[in-house]
Structure to design on (361 residues):
């Protein structure tokens, strides 16, 4: 894995020198503002909402309700270096997407972001009727007055897992969920959280790559192959005049405190403040280069929501011992709500409505 990560890092450096990292490149103007580069600053006006006003938030994300005693993690706002993020205006969002379908496709981290967005929209129009329907792996949150649906489709790998006589087969070259994806006006993809799971948490038994099968392979290599299959689907099926496509970058975990230089801690438990500054001591995430390379090569327009570094800085933002499983199931992967995914959705708003960004001279 180390050699793959090193090669990926060198690749990203080369891409940056050539034309700028894609997610930032999409949003730069003459002022060269990159909304994904900046720092976390204390803001007494935060958080953006109270989770108690969103009764549909999953228990695993409602850290305060689960007994988290501190509240400083709620008080940080993302501040880009050279511009000011627009205020998230849920009413404007719903009006501009009137009659549209927005679909999140991904793992439980995508669920985390979807729940954040539905809460932010609900609180923007608290008197508006909403419906929430869950059918199998599809959740649909709708605002009938605006005819807007914000959906989440659970699909952790984007490619297929198929039950066969030989066991559960992860097919790196196959996507059968595309018919649902084609129905959306905005597609927001993510995949990473499940790629490193092993043992009982691993949801497949065999990996199939073309006509070859393997009991296992380098997970970064497998991830790259799957994302390239996803990219082929996008190139073949997306009409950019009708559909906006976004890939949300890697959401990091904080299971190893040595990544942020703390020898006295073990993981995210007990962390109450971000890593201050603009860079993460642990360096780039090894999967970042893969995502950026795949997105860069697409012939169709896909915006990268490049949230990895800003999320790496938030070692304090996880449920830790205040998730669904309590102290016996430490969660340093998902995020408390309110919390970091709200910032992802502010950035999503800026990506969808780039004219709303205010540049700082």
């Amino acid at each position: 894995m180390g050699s793959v990560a090193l090669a990926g890092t060198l690749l990203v450096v080369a891409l940056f020198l050539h034309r700028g990292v894609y997610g930032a490149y999409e949003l730069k103007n003459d002022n060269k503002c990159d909304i994904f580069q900046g720092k976390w600053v204390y803001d007494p006006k935060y958080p953006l909402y109270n989770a108690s006003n969103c009764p549909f938030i999953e228990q695993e994300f409602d850290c305060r309700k689960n007994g988290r005693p501190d509240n400083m993690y709620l008080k940080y706002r993302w501040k880009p270096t050279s511009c000011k993020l627009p205020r998230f205006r849920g009413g404007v969002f719903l009006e501009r997407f009137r009659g549209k379908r927005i679909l999140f496709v991904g793992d439980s981290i995508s669920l985390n972001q979807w729940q954040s967005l539905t809460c932010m929209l609900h609180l923007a129009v608290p008197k508006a009727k909403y419906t929430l329907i869950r059918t199998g792996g599809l959740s649909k949150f709708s605002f009938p007055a605006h005819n807007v649906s914000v959906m989440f489709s659970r699909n952790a790998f984007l490619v297929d897992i198929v039950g066969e006589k030989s066991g559960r087969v992860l097919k790196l070259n196959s996507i059968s969920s595309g018919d649902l994806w084609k129905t959306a006006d905005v597609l927001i993809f993510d995949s990473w959280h499940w790629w490193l799971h092993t043992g009982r948490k691993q949801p497949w038994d065999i990996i199939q790559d073309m006509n070859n099968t393997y009991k296992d392979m380098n997970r970064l290599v497998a991830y790259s192959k799957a994302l390239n299959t996803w990219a082929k689907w996008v190139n073949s099926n997306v009409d950019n005049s009708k559909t906006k496509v976004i890939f949300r970058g890697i959401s990091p975990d904080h299971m190893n405190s040595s990544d942020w230089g703390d020898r006295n801690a073990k993981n995210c438990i007990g962390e109450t403040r971000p890593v201050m500054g603009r860079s993460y001591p642990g360096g780039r995430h090894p999967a970042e280069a893969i995502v950026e390379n795949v997105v860069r090569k697409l012939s169709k327009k896909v915006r990268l929501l490049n949230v990895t570094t800003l999320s790496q800085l938030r070692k304090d933002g996880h449920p830790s011992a205040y998730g669904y499983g309590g102290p016996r199931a430490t969660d340093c992967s998902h995020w408390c709500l309110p919390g970091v995914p709200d910032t992802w959705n502010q950035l999503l708003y800026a990506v969808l409505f780039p004219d709303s960004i205010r540049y700082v001279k």
Observations:
- Confidence is low (pLDDT under 50) at residues 1-31.
- The longest strand covers residues 148-154.
